[in-house]
Design a protein that fits this description.
This protein is an alpha/beta fold and about 260 residues long. The chain has helices at about 1-10, 20-35, 45-50, 70-75, 90-100, 110-115, 145-160, 180-185, 220-230, 240-250; strands at about 10-15, 85, 120-125, 125-130, 135, 165-170, 195-205, 235-240. The longest helix is centred in the N-terminal third of the chain and has 16 residues, at about 20-35. Bound molecules: nicotinamide-adenine-dinucleotide.
């Protein structure tokens, strides 16, 4: 019996408690408080459309079409030149966009904001939002409610970008750019070359950490080649100063934080 229980537990991960309440609360905070220009959005309808995508369904076989009504319901435009993608650099990207309020990561838009850091799923046997155990995404369960959601909203976020777009990458990990990431597999390929003329990459390094990759490395060359093939110009900058200054809050004495650098 114990072996069975352990196997079941190991193949699941904890979903977030009270997903519906959190999503509704975040929607109200975002539309009433943070972005009052969106105060006419109907958060109860947004919540119902969100949960309808996956409740009562097989938690391993959610489709992009399941989330289409939500995508159609929540239309929000990010101004040109203000889109910030990120990969392996979530915390710094959000700290930066939290200060440079003109810039929008996906999680600074309503759809990204309501779902960030949550895990959710449905169950064919009930019409409830599961809040205890949701299956891990793996080769036998590739299309979970959470992962399909991020694929769909990331695609939409990239499709609607315009002007110069930015991406913050992490040069302290193995590779700054990975074709397997959502940025490398979804966002890059859904930029519209007729609207997006330039992708600007910032490769950031942890202060006091290793510098494993940089703008001169082969992963950035690969990114440049993918982007140029799509008729979009590409620029890369190591340790973009304004983002470095955000890192400097925790390391004020580091030489790279000096104004003389
Ligand atoms: P990353 O490798 O740093 O992944 C970011 C986080 O999202 C990780 O915790 C990862 O496990 C998770 N994640 C990534 N793709 C996922 C998916 N399809 N399903 C479930 N979880 C997933 O960076 P990345 O893969 O390039 O993703 C970041 C980019 O894509 C950003 O530009 C953002 O717009 C978007 N995105 C955001 C989230 C999020 O959790 N807020 C998740 C996926 C994608």
């Amino acid at each position: 019996i114990w072996v069975g229980v352990l196997t079941w537990r190991q193949s699941s991960m904890g979903a977030t408690d009270h997903v519906s309440a959190i999503v509704l609360g975040r929607c109200l905070t975002y539309t009433r408080n943070m972005h009052p220009e969106l105060r006419n959005q109907d958060c109860k309808k947004i919540l119902n459309t969100f949960t309808s995508a996956f409740v009562s369904k097989d938690p391993c076989n959610i489709t992009k079409e399941d989330y289409q009504p939500l995508i159609d319901l929540v239309t929000q435009t990010v101004p040109c030149n203000k889109t910030l993608f990120w990969s392996r650099s979530k915390e710094l990207a959000h700290q930066y966009s939290g200060i440079q309020k003109e810039m929008f990561t996906l999680e600074d838009t309503l759809l990204g904001y309501i779902a960030d850091n949550l895990v959710w799923c449905g169950d064919p046997r009930t019409s409830e939002v599961k809040e205890e155990f949701c299956p891990y995404r793996n080769e036998n369960c590739s299309s979970t409610a959470t992962s399909v959601f991020w694929t769909v909203v990331s695609q939409k976020f990239a499709e609607s970008a315009c002007g110069t777009v930015y991406v913050m990458l992490n040069g302290s990990g193995t590779t700054a750019f990975s074709k397997a990431s959502t940025f490398g597999s979804v966002e890059v390929f859904n930029l519209h070359p007729d609207r997006v003329h330039t992708l600007h990459a910032w490769v950031m390094h942890d202060i006091g950490g290793v510098e494993r990759d940089s703008c001169l490395g082969s992963s950035i060359k690969e990114l440049k080649s993918i982007v140029n093939q799509r008729n979009i110009s590409f620029f890369c900058q190591d340790d973009y100063r304004p983002a470095r200054f955000v890192q400097c809050v925790r390391h004020p004495e580091h030489p790279s934080c000096s104004v003389l650098m």
